[in-house]
TrEMBL record:
It holds the Pfam family Abhydrolase_2. This is Phospholipase/carboxylesterase/thioesterase domain-containing protein. Residues 25-247 form the Phospholipase/carboxylesterase/thioesterase domain. It comes from Cannabis sativa. InterPro entries: AB_hydrolase_fold, PLipase/COase/thioEstase. One of its GO terms (molecular function) is hydrolase activity.
Amino acid sequence: MSFTGPSVGSGARTVRRAFEFGRTYVVRPKGRHQATVVWLHGLGDNGSSWSQLLETLPLSNIKWICPTAPTQPISVFGGFPSTAWFDVEDLSEDASDDLEGLDSAASHVANLLANEPADIKIGVGGFSMGAAAALYSATCFISGKYGNDNPFPVNISAVVGLSGWLPCAKILRNKIEGVAEATRRASSLPILLCHGKVDDVVIYKFGEKSSQVLSSTGFQDVTFKSYSALGHYTIPEEMDAVCAWLKSKLSLDDTSLDNGV
């Protein structure tokens, strides 16, 4: 999680890893296309399951892009391979961050959005590890560059994280303070975080701490919603909140469906 511990991946990695992403699922807008949101699944999942859920939401103006993460060895699983956006040593505050994997995930997000029309608002969101990758992508947008200093090319208008955490939290302040453009972007980027109080996988305090770190480093539009009986999954009440928030922050029309789109 790296709220208090090391903030980069292992220095022992000297060979660049090859990340082969899986299938991408796209849910086309049923109405006028006003926004495109990349949605990132959790550890061990794939883009298909979330695309099926997102297709049922009353957000007819959003195009959803649901990629599938690479299959790679996961340290917390003893090296057993799983679909994952980056490697995870353990779910604790002092675990190191896999910066190479995070940069790869953020770059994949940017590539998926590269050909969207200029007048379309861009969002990124996810669940669990996918929420972490989405939040990391947001910090790349804020600073204008990936962790490896290559430029981040996409403008992000909204970020949603469900049952997740903020990677590289300890170094976030250094990315923003004293950088005028980063400060401006942080102050205006809306972020919605939701977390269940009985989550036994990514515990509640990680979500709560992520919200606090964002707010204390200059993010002025952070909404944190907690759900007292929610574990490590989503529920209709939570998705209703996501829908209302996205409609507001992306200024989506509630127009009748346009079958011509």
